[in-house]
Design a protein that fits this description.
With 184 residues, this protein is an alpha+beta fold. It has one domain. Helices cover 40% and strands 36% of the residues. It has a 3-stranded antiparallel β-sheet with strand order 1-2-3, covered by helices on one side. The termini are far apart. InterPro entries: TadE-like_dom. Keywords: Membrane, Transmembrane, Transmembrane helix.
Length: 184
Amino acid sequence: MAIKHLKSEKGQSLVEFALILPILLILMSFTLDVAQAINSKMNVQHLAGEMVKAHKYFHQGGHENPGDDLFFDSRDDLIDHLLDKSPLNADELTYNIIEGEVRDRHFIGKRWHQTGTNSFGVPIGRFFGTNNSNTVQYITVEVEYVLNFSMILTKTVLGDSLTLSETFTTAMYLGSDGDWPDPL
């Protein structure tokens, strides 16, 4: 009779499940926190880009008179609106907007002037080059976000939080000399 009970497989799947359950929980907690980190990183990137656009929009319109069709009175009001609408926790977020120096860029502008077509219908013409310049200012937005992990197992292995940062730099066009002579 004892041999009959030794060959019984009742409860074997319960023991196997009990052995695998901790591994499944660890994998699930890491998966959830990594997914949250990826989502937060994308939100930080999006927010940095929107902050650059907000700065450019108000700066190019002029600080005193940005335009009559704006819904916000200042760049900071628009950035506060972006922070309110963001899924990120504003208490864990810091940002810095850096205005670089104003630079004149000099380049040779080329323009195609078509003088006619050949017997195959291909346009004939030439490029005209002129010295041009424009004025730009480089704007950099630095955004830093502290993501607090939610799963206890992830906190034990990786620590309590992860700092996500994004730096977004763009050139803001301020004007040009408009030197395009008539090629004829």
